Amino acid sequence: MKRLLPAFLACAALHAAPLPDISTVPADLIIPELSDGPPTAGKRVSLVLFEGTPPVILYLPTDWAPEKKFPLIIELDGNGNFKNSYGDTSSGLPEGSKLGYGLSGGKGFVWVCVPFLNEAGNKTAITWWGDAPDYRPDSTNARNLLFHLVPHKS
After folding, report:
1. d(Cα 72, Cα 49) in Å, to the nearest integer?
2. Left (φ > 0), alpha (ψ -120 to 50) or beta: where does 92 sit?
3. Collapsing DSSP states into helix, strand and coil, what is residue 154?
4. Which residues pair with 108 in a beta bridge?
5. CA–CA–CA angle 106, 31, 34 (5° rounding)
6. Per the structure, how many domains does the chain have?
7. Domain range holding 139?
8. Regions of the chain with pLDDT less than 50
9. In 3-state terms, what secondary structure has residue 114?
10. Of 21, 44, 131, 148, whose CB has the highest number of CB atoms within 10 Å?
11. Rounded to an integer, what distance in angstroms lies between the CA atom of residue 52 and that of residue 97?
C-alpha cells in the first residue's frame, strides 16, 4: 500500500486541471474608498495622530459600535514601488494597503494602516523606514503608534 500512494499521487497530478491565472478571478472584497470626515462604521478615513507627521488610515468595521471592544489590525505598508508578474502592487503608502481589510472582510476588526517615516519622522518613507543607508525604525510612526495604543508596563 505504501508503494502505491506515490504512484497514485503522481497520476492524480498529471490529470489535475490547470489552475486559473489569479488575475482572471474576480475580487470578492472591495475596499471602501478613502473619505473625508469623522470615522464611522464602514468608513475609511485619514487621521493625523501626531502633529507634523503623515496621517494613518483608519477603518471602522461595518459592525462597529462605540460601546463594543474590537481587536486591532495594524498594517505597516512599506515595500513601495513593488509590482510583480501577477499584477500585485504596493505603493508603499497607507492609502494603498489592503491586507487588513482582506483578513477581516470589513467586519469584527478595527484596521489601521500606518506609514513608515523618514529619519526626521515628518514624511512617508515608501521603501521601509528611515533614511538610507541606516533605515532606523525608532523614528517611525508605527513605533509611536504602538507605544501609545498597546497596553504596556513602564
Report:
1. 16
2. left
3. coil
4. none
5. 110
6. 1
7. 32-149
8. none
9. strand
10. 44
11. 22
Q: Which long-range contacts (CB under 8 A, 24 or more apart) does 89-95 make?
A: 91/126, 92/116, 92/124, 92/125, 92/126, 92/127, 93/124, 93/126, 94/54, 94/55, 94/56, 94/57, 94/124, 95/34, 95/46, 95/57
pLDDT digits (tens, 9 = 90+) for 77-98: 867 888 888 778 889 899 999 9
50 grid coordinates: 501626531
Residue recorded with cell 521603501: 127
Nearest one of 88, 145, 149, 85 to 116, comparing CA atoms: 145
- The C-alpha cell at 20 is 486559473
Q: Terminus-to-terminus CA distance in the chain, angstroms?
A: 61
The answer to whether residue 45 sits within a structural domain is: yes
Angle at the Cα of 72 from the Cα atoms of 68 and 74, rounded to 5 degrees: 155
State the residue for C-alpha cell 505598508: 77
Q: Is residue 4 part of a domain?
A: no
Reading the block at residue 105, the C-alpha cell is 472582510
Is 67 within a domain?
A: yes
pLDDT computed for residue 145 by the predictor? 59
**What distance in Å separates the CA atoms of residue 93 and residue 27, rounded to the nearest whole number?**
21
Residue 17 placed within a domain:
no
